[in-house]
Amino acid sequence: MSEGGFTLSQAMDVKQLHAGATWTLDQLVAQSPIGEALKRAFPQRRDYLKVLSIAYFIILNQDNNISKYPTFAEATRLPWGGALHPSSIGRVFRKIKKQQIENYFSAIQEGLIEQKKKNGDDDRLTLALDSTSISSYANKLPNVERGRNKDEDNLPQINVLMLVDPKSGLPIFYRTYDGNVPDVQTVRRVIADNSRLGIQNVVLVSDRGYSGTKNINDCLRNKVGFLFNMKCGISGSLTQELIDEERVNLQDLNRMDWFTQVFQVTKKISWIYEPNPVTGQRSTKKTQETAELYWHSYFDRQIAENARQGMFERIIRIREKMAAGKSLDENEQTLLEEVFVKHEKDGTVSYSVDNKKVDQKLRYKGYRVLVSDEISDARKAWCAYQERWIVEDTFKTLKSRLGCSRNRVSDNESLT
After folding, report:
1. What does the pLDDT look like over 44-98, one tens digit per residue?
2. Alpha helices (H) along 13-46
3. DSSP state string for 41-76
4. 2 confidence band (pLDDT: 50, 70, 90)
5. Looking at domain 123-299+367-415, does it have CATH number 3.30.70.100?
6. Are strands 289-299 and 263-273 parallel, antiparallel or unpaired?
7. Which residue, 62, 182, 207, 277, has fewest beta-carbon neighbours within 10 Å?
């Protein structure tokens, strides 16, 4: 061998590692705030490299069985090059404290805002908000309660709420709640924790389960931006009033947005709220403040037509079953009571369709109303709402990829 070259014995000691996939993951981490956030949250004994290596292992393997990690690490280039046995991995996770998790999420949030600034985007950080239910076999854990199980699983559950950045898909916050806490209340608790969590300069985007007067007021009091999808089915609500006022405009072809393919109208409304409510004290003009809210109303003709066609098919099915003397299922029986009129004559029972009731049930189909204190443009609001579906991918990862749809632990520390 020439001077400075490898000897045969040295060449025999060279270790070959698979590096393509982990190199790709390295680039993704470098382009996101993940690496710096982990380093800030877990600096001791370079635990941030261990956590990242475990994440790589879970991503690149068919399951998250930690017992397979040593074999994987022997053949793969990882951020942490040392050995990690299942017991060592358990110790890494057990050392993680609540404050470290909050430090990690704060760093992620700061990193995402910094990236936006570098890209010349001064808008607030838009975060998709939603919750899911995690079933549990253990009834005695602190948050395990029976409630509305979103997976129709006949087990008590814990509710997990997440805030996710729709652009990167990164979760920047999560919190667990009792399984019987309604969705609308979970948002109020997150907003109440705003000062401690340091969630600033953000717009929360949520579905209909989280909208409501109290949540709007809480967001305004705590300077948290929001984009809420309002419920259109509540009789006599402001939402229905606005739809009725703009019904003609929302079917004007000049109001059709070419990008979203829906009709849209924006109305600015002065919203009165109490900035510093005091229990037992009546609200007066002196204690009230006013905020300008943007109410974006949309109409999708195709959704409305599909709903109408679906209603007609269900009515026809009910009439066919009744004519054949067949029993109705629960949903059909409910529709029978809602839109049919019962007639009794000479001991004979018959039914007819009440057209007004059918029209009333279809009156608000195809309409959507999004309310925001921050997003004034109807198209931007529509796109921000559509992007909130990224949180469903996060739940899919949590439940399916990480196997958390049902937990089998018996103590709270293991669950955490």
Report:
1. 888 999 999 999 999 998 877 889 999 999 999 999 988 899 999 988 888 888 8
2. 20-30, 34-41
3. H--GGGHHHHHHHHHHHHHHSSS--GGGHHHHHHHB
4. low
5. no
6. antiparallel
7. 62
Residue 129 contacts residue 205 (beta carbons within 8 Å): yes
Tokens of 339: 């839109």
Per 3-state DSSP, the chain is made up of helix, strand and coil in percentages (nearest 5) of 45, 20, 35
**What's the pTM value of the predicted model, to 2 decimals?**
0.81
| pLDDT per position as a tens digit, 115-168 | 888 888 877 888 898 888 888 887 777 777 787 777 777 788 888 888 899 888
Exposure on the CB side of residue 39, measured as CA atoms within 13 A: 9
Tokens of 114: 């910094």
State both tokens at 374: 């921050």
100 vs 88: CA distance, rounded Å: 19
> In the chain, what are the domain boundaries?
10-96, 123-299+367-415, 303-362
Q: Is 248 helix (H, G, I), strand (E, B) or coil?
A: coil
Q: Which two tokens stand for residue 83?
A: 């050995």
Structural tokens at position 72: 């994987």
